[in-house]
Amino acid sequence: MSNKTRAPGLVRRRLAVGATAALLGAAVAVGSGLGTAASAADPVSLTGVILGVGADESQRVLTWYSSADTAQKVQLAPTAALVNGEFPATAAAFDAIGGANIATSGGYNRHATITSLKEKTRYSYRVGGDGAWSPTYSFQTQDFEGDYDFLFFGDPQIGSSGDTLKDQAGWEETLKVATAANPNAELLVSGGDHVESANNESQWTSFLAPDQLRQYPVVATIGNHDVGGKAYEQHHFTPNTDRSAPYYDNGNPAGTKSGGDYWFVYKDVLFIDINSNSYAVPAGGGNVGDSAHVAYITDVINKHGAEAKWKVLVYHHSIYSPASHATDTDNKDRREHFTTAFSQLGIDMVLQGHDHSYSRSYAIKNGQKADPDEQPGAAEVFPGPGGVIYVTANSASGSKYYDIKKPDATGTGIRGNGPDPLNPDSYWYNSVQNQEHVRSYVKVQVRADKLVLENLRSGTCAAPNASVEKGSWCYNTSEAQPVGSIVDKVTVRPYHGSGQDVQVAVPNPAPGEFGWTIDGYNGLVDLGTAQERNGTFFEATGKINPILVTDSRRSLAPWSISASAGAFRDGDKAFSGAFLGWTPFLLDAGAGAQPGAAVLSAYDDQGLGLSVARGLAAAEQGHPRGSAKLGADLSLKIPDSVDKGSYRATITITALSS
Asked: Comparing C-alpha atoms, which of 655, 599, 649, 606 is closest to residue 628?
């Protein structure tokens, strides 16, 4: 999208903790159907409508059931264009495809992909055809760049309590609570096990009952209770899906295969969703099971990883969880076969279901705790290179909970379930474990410099809570732990994309006595909203985090600090670091420091700006010993021709001293 309308720009910068480098991040807003006609005597029934995620922010996928094999489509228009509820003649139409339902109660399935959506628009839609339309539903698009929130839900497993309607009530209440508290959430992400029995359409009807599933795009994940039949696939059509044998419910007969591995990019997140049911430990190697999924994830990241700042992996089988599935042999196998690859590929977070209890792992690198000193329940974590956070969601419906198990004597190896040395009641790999027998969901805030994860209560011991209603225990105290209260909250600042990159370039260091560091916390710093100037460019200003230089050497040798900025990039979009300029200054004088010369943005003088090394400060031979605190005012000026996006650049800061 070009910035020909000169929309305002949001510009941010980041600095990295470390001795020799800083990152600067910026976000600049630039500004045909099937079948034959049905008989008039047999009205077409349209049911099970669900809104799914598309390949990017501008797409959605709609899936539904039809009682007749007629030509059908999606009709779509901005809600503001409807008159008295009627769609205008200019409404867009998207033809549906599909076929006869397999191993269900009959009927036909349809799906259609909506494309070319515009941002910040409320749309209305309906499915069907002339004379037989569904009710009208609506959804809202948000800005296609920048921060957003998504919600993650564990195992509704409708029907597992033995009472489908009670399970439905809990599921509906969780979605109601979650979206009321987070009305601008942009995705509903599933951890799998939507139903108890794969082809039980009455259970699917209850799963699909909440209106939110037609208002917010759903990111579907196939669970072990969803396999063995085609209903999952008939109700969820997913983008960019590979249904090759290794990913496509490999252990079931052809007529019941369902699922596949798929991916999509939504704003700054590359989501990869795999079918962990299709899994087999390879005998003597071969591209099956674990190795096939790793190959798929690797290929997707190699091709599309640069399009996003974060990598989130979703699959059903929880490999770091606190309850009965934590000791399953197949999950121990997955730990052994997946975790090193996930670390090497730079996965930031893995979202899982299956164990009907909540857990948040420590940062796990290559199947081991990345930092032995990371404390249980830490409110802020810095996983470092290769560190991955694994999250298991509790039941979103209350249909079934699994109780937390005590650690065993298998130790802290990659397959072990021994105790945490810092918290012996928990498994070694879990920072937080929780089970109260109340419904909950996970909220993830996606920000340019962090992921903020919260596990939130969507219920109490009271109904709707099918498992408790049928006699299971419940430890929640609604006065102290009401609906909406927080079970766990953590801010994750990964190595990649969080301001923790460190780069060293010191040609002639003097050991131990000369050095510099970033002074204070060094996360992303918001430069505010770029202002339009003269209708031709945007401008944003701010300050770097101060840099503290200390020199106590007897030699009193000269020193200098300089910096250069790389290109600002967002996927395949970029603009030159030359558009960034600065004016150095001293916050605290000392160590002979003298500020460097001001550097103009290339927009002002057609020069090179900070795209080449420029001096921040320096001291001459014979300067006094001591310390200085260095600062700089940043000035970013960019032409209005820069494409809309959230851009980042790396500023490499180099210290020189003899």
From this structure: 655
Query: What is the C-alpha to C-alpha distance for residues 139 and 147, in angstroms, rounded to an integer?
Result: 19
379 in Cβ contact with 522 (< 8 Å): no
Interval 455-492: pLDDT, tens: 999 999 999 999 999 999 998 998 999 999 999 999 99
End-to-end Cα spacing for the chain = 49
Does position 113 have pLDDT exceeding 80, yes or no?
yes
CB-based contact 466:158 (threshold 8 Å): no
Give CA separation, 200 vs 98, 207, 231, in Å.
20, 11, 8
d(CA 297, CA 535): 44
Judge contact between 77 and 123, C-beta under 8 A: yes
Antiparallel, parallel or unpaired: β 573-575 and 537-543: unpaired
Question: Quick one: 263 exposed, middle or buried, by C-beta within 10 A (0-12, 13-18, 19+)?
Answer: buried
For 263-279, write each residue's pLDDT tens digit: 999 999 999 999 999 88
Residue from 628, 599, 630, 602 nearest 614 by CA: 599
In Å, how far are 18, 77, 444 from 384, measured between CA atoms?
13, 46, 20
Identify the CA nearest to 456 among candidates 181, 184, 167: 181
Q: Is the distance from CB of 115 to CB of 123 less than 8 angstroms?
A: no
Please report where in the chains the tokens 């339009």 appear, as a residue.
532
Q: How far apart are CA 561 and CA 653, in angstroms?
A: 7
Query: How distant is the alpha carbon of residue 515 from its chain centre?
Result: 37
Q: What angle do CA 509, 513, 515 make, to 5 degrees?
A: 65
Structure tokens at 122: 């409320």
**Radius of gyration for the chain, computed over Cα atoms and rounded to the nearest angstrom:** 27
DSSP H/E element including 11: strand 9-14
Q: What percent of the chain has pLDDT over 90?
A: 70
User: In this structure, which amino acid lies at residue 78?
Assistant: P
Model confidence at 192: pLDDT above 50 = yes
What are phi and psi for residue 464, nearest 5 degrees? -80, 120
| Cβ-Cβ contacts under 8 Å for 639 (sequence gap 6 or more) | 536, 537, 603
Residue 166 has pLDDT above 60, yes or no: yes
Beta-strand pair 108-114/97-100: antiparallel
Place of tokens 């996606």: 446
Q: Are 153 and 185 in contact (CB under 8 A)?
A: no
- In DSSP notation, 326-382 reads GG-HHHHHHHHHHHHHHHHTT--EEEE-SSSSEEEEPPEETTEES-TTPPTT-SEE-
Dihedral over Cα of 386, 567, 581, 533: its sign: negative
Sheet of 349-352: strand order equals: 262-266, 269-273, 310-314, 349-352, 389-392, 358-361, 430-434
Which residue type sits at 188?
L
Side chain identity at residue 484, one-letter code: G
- Under DSSP, the state recorded for 404 is P
Tell me the C-alpha distance between 580 and 551, whole Å.
Answer: 29
3-state SS, one letter per residue, for 517-568:
EECCCCCEEEEEEEEEECCCEEEEEEECCCEEEEECCCCCCCEEEEEEECCE
